Amino acid sequence: MKKIEQLEFNNTFAQQPDVFYSHVKPTPLNAPFFISINHDVADLLEIDMHELHLQNNLKYLSGEALLQDMQPIAQCYAGHQFGHFVSRLGDGRAIILGEINTQHNGKWDLQIKGCGKTPYSRDGDGRAVLRSTIREYLCSEAMHALGIETTRALCMIGSEEEIYREQIETGALLLRTAPSHIRFGNFEYFYYNNQHEHIKTLADYVIKHHYPALKTEPRPYLTLLEVVIDKTAKMIAQWQSVGFAHGVMNTDNMSILGLTLDYGPYGFLDAYEPGFICNHSDHQGRYAFDQQPNIGLFNLSCLAQALLPIIDPEPEQSVEYAKAALGEYHNRYIGHYADYMRKKLGFIQTSIDDQVLCQNLLTLMAEDKVDYTIFFRTLSHFSANDTKPALRDLFIQREKFDQWADLYKTRLQQETISEQQRWNNMKKSNPKYILRNYMSEVAIRNAEDNHDYSEIDRLLDLLKKPFDEQKANSHYAGLPPDWADGISVSCSS
């Protein structure tokens, strides 16, 4: 483990052509202070925890001072936002301080979010507010613990600086990390600017640093597209399996590594509602929960379009290759989703009737507004010997559930593992704890109204072990309170 001053930086992206980014100096918040530090991410970055807490290090983590070899940059990219192409976006409030080289865990971007204006801020102030920072800090770690690829956060830093949104709010900083923050929009920027040589340079960079096995492929850029298609399909299948809605699936929020990126107005399902819209700015429901798989294909189509100039020397051949690759997306998605749902249902064997059994269950859950997480966690204790399982009390149409349960019991007879083994397996796929909106809201209210940040660390510890019973924390596993229906989240942050 290293002290902060001993961290080694090798800023490979900053060595690329300067059209990829802009050098920018962070503008720290006034009188910053630590709110929370994520010990697990400190271990990942091989930073000495005892050293990290020292007040002297706050200046390096808040952007006030730079460590040797840091090269702060803001990335330039474009993107399709709510279906409409925007030719120049970029990191408007995020600055990559540098790339940390660890001894055992690879290379990681160290990015600070909320540290002032960049050339891509447009009319924004480059700041992040406390409420959105708390939400991203908690959810990125919750998603990691659920086994979903994601950016993560090292720490959250607060201040008393006033930030103007719909009302005056408090500014905060998030220090997040990922192997890369390159998005689909990075490629789109060069495609629509007819800078095809930079598409190749960027693709070569991604392959060299993140997909080195592709170097020897006969068509490495086509294979890159195919790999990203599969990773994205898998990520979205995982979202659907745990009931996660991203809320803003613009192409500039889609990671080339298949990471869940940019947590804004996200939400986990409470009652199962296929058309759930978590983003109150999404008036048309473009990014509703049940639309996410299709939006994944749209976004991948935008990436494929941007890669056309380099997939094959013959333009028509490039189009055919890209179409064929995109044609595999739904099969990939359906395959991944089926695997996750079989695990949630406790199946090891595969049956042709599994999809129908699962869909019938979800239809009934939607009709009766059954809580998604509570149902599947309770199902993890289902016994084929129960004539009237406790699960039926979650439903209004109990006779319909009984009919489904009879089919489920019949299906379980095809399995060769013991009931106890099935229960153990299911509890590893069905979390007891998710980050419900009301939980974040309680932490936000305590922080904003009372300067009490203890709930943030409490939730962080809870969400790192979502599959454990954690009996002392069982109150977090219940239904949300009635007032939770009034929580509104949007793109404003």
What this model shows, in words?
With 493 residues, the chain is α+β, with helices and mostly antiparallel strands. Among the domains are: 4-184, no CATH class; 347-427, no CATH class. It has helices at 39-44, 49-52, 58-61, 130-145, 184-192, 196-210, 220-242, 292-311, 315-326, 329-345, 354-368, 372-379, 398-412, 419-427, 437-450, 454-463; strands at residues 21-23, 33-37, 73-75, 79-81, 84-86, 94-101, 107-113, 128-129, 152-164, 168-178, 244-245, 267-268. The strands form four sheets. Strands 2, 6, 7, 8, 9 and 10 form a six-stranded antiparallel beta sheet that branches. It has a two-stranded antiparallel sheet with strand order 1-3. It is globular.
What layout of secondary structure does this protein have?
Blueprint: E1 21-23, E2 33-37, H1 39-44, H2 49-52, H3 58-61, E3 73-75, E4 79-81, E5 84-86, E6 94-101, E7 107-113, E8 128-129, H4 130-145, E9 152-164, E10 168-178, H5 184-192, H6 196-210, H7 220-242, E11 244-245, E12 267-268, H8 292-311, H9 315-326, H10 329-345, H11 354-368, H12 372-379, H13 398-412, H14 419-427, H15 437-450, H16 454-463
Antiparallel strand pairs: 1-3, 2-9, 4-5, 6-7, 7-10, 8-10, 9-10, 11-12
Helix pairs in contact: 4-15, 4-16, 5-6, 5-8, 7-8, 7-9, 7-10, 8-9, 11-13, 15-16
Task: Supply database-style keywords.
12 strands, alpha+beta, globular, two-stranded antiparallel sheet
Describe the structure concisely for a colleague.
This protein is of the alpha+beta class and 493 residues long. The protein has 16 helices and twelve strands.
